[in-house]
User: Fold these one by one.
Assistant:
Number 1:
Amino acid sequence: MGTIGAMFVPIRKGVKQTIPIVVEFGSLTTRAGFAGEERPMIIRHTEMGRISKEPLTYLPELETSFYPYKEEVKIFNPFDNFSIIDSDAFEASFDSIMRKLNLAPSESSLLIVEPPFHNRDARLKFVQLMFEKAGLDSVSLHKSPLLTLYVYARENALILDSGAANTFVTPIVEGFINSKAVVKSDIAGEFLTRQFQEKLTSRGIDLSPSIFVPPEAGPVSHDFEQFAKRALVREIKHANVRLMEHKTEHLQFNDTTDKVSFDLPDKRKIDLSREIYDVPEQLFRDIPEHNFNGLHNLVVKSLSMCDVDVRKELLSNVFVVGGNCLVNFPERLQWQLMSSPNLWNLNAKVKVFTRGEAYERQHCNWLGGSILASMSSFNQLVMSRAEYEEHGALLIERKCYA
């Protein structure tokens, strides 16, 4: 695992030197690792398992820990829009992260990545749990679009972050988020996953539990079955769906030459047809029931709420990140923006940027946190346990958002 060049791990006087850790609790994926690294050491589902019979048991590592309980496990997410809804489950999840990183919380400094939209009550609860439950030495929270700027080294940018549950468009001017112009939509990765699953089911493709668990292993819970199905559909989707580089009213698809095959876990092959193009096209179509008319129009809407004198520069600095950045996503977004009559009066040169590798786009926010937490100035942005005990959780507002 590589490290980021020219970074400096902060040294706090009178305290044992430690490398800060960076954690991002995404709606689908949790990422955790050490500052200065190029990739998170831990990448796992944010969803957890719960065995309700006494004693109550939490299973934070679904990939490895819930198979023995497959008949009785309940799968849930301890977060709702980044707000913690089950403190005990969150504590179990965070404890397992610290064990995997082999760290003592009392000697650890933490940077938490938070989304552009985040309410103060949820943030303060995070800080309270980190000090009182997890027992951390110091904590800092930073919004994901600002962390993305550390990766791209820009002060002015329009960040389009399309993840699992939400897509955000965030304008940043001179290093500050224009919070009044942040736009959010629930058309994102999991919306496409559900659409893709419906397409496969309508074609009679078998996604029953027997694919994942041999019959001799016994029955599985409904939660187990749904979790496994979604995971498989995501895998198929990520491996095969792709966007056209420009809008096409009538896709010319030849079932003989254009279809692709995918190997299921039970060794069967399935053929994928038009759905590999039809499903992602919804990112740029009207979906009235979701008050959505295309990702490009989210960008237009965000720009319209920015000062006129910065719109041209922002449109030349559009950065695309997130796990929902599919094949040809940046090219298609650029084509849609250049074709939008709502932007012609700006006479701007549209430029859409993204990272070259898929993992870089998926983990861009975490990587920005890794860069920030590696800097010598990071010490000035953290809230120590002593400060929490003296001033309470509200101090985090001044420490991190001054």
Number 2:
Amino acid sequence: MNYREEFNNLGEEGKKLPSGYFVTKKTAICISAFFICVIIGVATMFFLLPSPFQTCEEVVTDCTPELPEEPVLPTSEPREDFDERLPGIGLYPENYDITLTIYLDEEDGEDRFTFVGSETIYLRCDKESDVIKMNSRFLNVNVDSGNVVVTESDTGKEIGVHKAYLDELHELFVIELSSTLQVDQTYNVELKEFGAAIGNADFDQYGMYYQSYDIYGQTRWMCNTKFTPNYAREVFPSFDEPHFRSTFDLTLIHRDKRWALSNMPVKETTTLNDGWMTTSFDTTPNMVTYLLVLVLADFPKISTITKNGYELNVWAREDHLYAANYSLYAGSETLTYFEELLEMPYGLPKMDFVAVPDYAAGATEFWEIGRASCRERV
């Protein structure tokens, strides 16, 4: 070792310093304080955290929040059971005599796209009853005194009406009587005024609905019906279920710029004032309500007589009538073919095909009643 190295190992007094690491007093105090804080923190964590030997049940029991009290449900009045069918009260319709006035034009003002009607239903009573229930949906029926009348068919004796009202929930029109209808008797139920809005084909193509079509720069209006399966109740109060069958006498009051078409041939037309007319039709065969149909339009037609002598017509708007020739030919040939195949005559006086501009069902065939409706593009 040289003298320089020896000098570096001497202290202030020339003494030799021991080897190793040295810290100042201040640094030692800081290190000691740090370790003390760590020890305190660890101890605090062990004190606050749950013991690993504590069971889950004890923790859940301590932390379960109090549940709110169960609300008290409101009580409702008991409701009579209803299976969406007319109750079996022993009344059966034998005939409907219906008159409808239909408003489609601007001249009709606030009445436009509405209809009003009246009807007489001829009922047979097979079971004593003091109430009459029939189907009605979306109809406004005038139930004021004198507008709902029930009489005996044979004698004309009036049966007192205690109360008449609409049960909208169950789609019923109910007539409560002051006396009981007797078995094997027939009765007339007269409703002098009812009506409703006509549906718009853009949104509603059931019951009775209207639509327009453009031709030669003009907008023209028409209306038609679709009662399948249970929409007749939207046009007239009725026993609108398929096991009820009856005949129908229909009269339409409409503007004379349109013709009226229904199941049977026209029986009579009458000219009224201010461009109105009535069209009455022959009585239909015995049938269900959903087979009744009506059309108000200004379409032209082409016609033929089938091999077995039945009138067959195809109705279409004027600018589409050229396309109806095939329907006329095919309809005539098909009707004759099935008559001969089944060895059964068609049996009704006419058959009509009507090409409706907008028809939701695509097509509806009413072979039993001599009319079919179809969409133009079917």
Number 3:
Amino acid sequence: MIELQPQSSGSEGGISREQYIEKVATEIEEKLPAVFELDRIRRQLGEITPTAVVLLQELERFNNLISKMKISVATLQRALAGEVGMSAELDEIAKALFNGQIPGSWRRLAPDTLKSLGNWIAHFERRFEQYSTWIDKGEPAVMWLSGLHIPESYLTALVQATCRKNGWPLDKSTLYTTVTHHTKAGDVREKLHSGCYIEGLYLEGGSWDVENACLRKSKPKVLVEELPILKVIPIEAHRLKLQNTFKTPVYTTSERRNAMGVGLVFEADLSTTEHSSHWVLQGVALMLNAD
């Protein structure tokens, strides 16, 4: 019975559980965009580069999510009105919306997340904006990696594109990263010729000294802080000679990775004046999402 009690009945003026769920479903339905026209976009892109392939794959996955959400909220509204029966899946969706959680059937079609429903919808809308900009204006100069369903595929595509351009062997190429002094995407004036800038990375277990461009111990009472814009450049592995850096794992969420290694996206090179073991003991890592 506790599970069925409205969690915000006072602020909602004492409306019933069904009315509250219907209100949330309607608000979500109003935010859902039309699916992307993949055939038109494929023609518009012209030459299909490795990163264009990633975009088309991302859009296909995003379309599946949009379609599922549209069917879910429309059918749920009909079930609440008594027009169709309430299936087990619809009941699970209703409970999730009521409790401010992401329905399992939606979660399975989206990137890993620990967000509440409200924050996840805002994340969903920002993902749509980045995809739309990518289609209309070309590949972003600064990529919001958290907005991609499979972010590691984009990084792999960057290496593939540079290897094709320069005639490098793919298996002997890697990524080099460096933290810039830019704190906002708007500070970046032009796109890199190879590689990209990345925004929206969050540092846990330490802090970033902007002035000296290196890792420092965490600030008091600050558990997570946003890293400045990261520059990612494909490079031949034998040319990469790094000193005084900590190879920092980048995870999708603060849960980091499971026993199968799922959750690790890539490793970023962060400058440091301390030995790497110091940051390992501090549990320093980067996240794509500040849950």
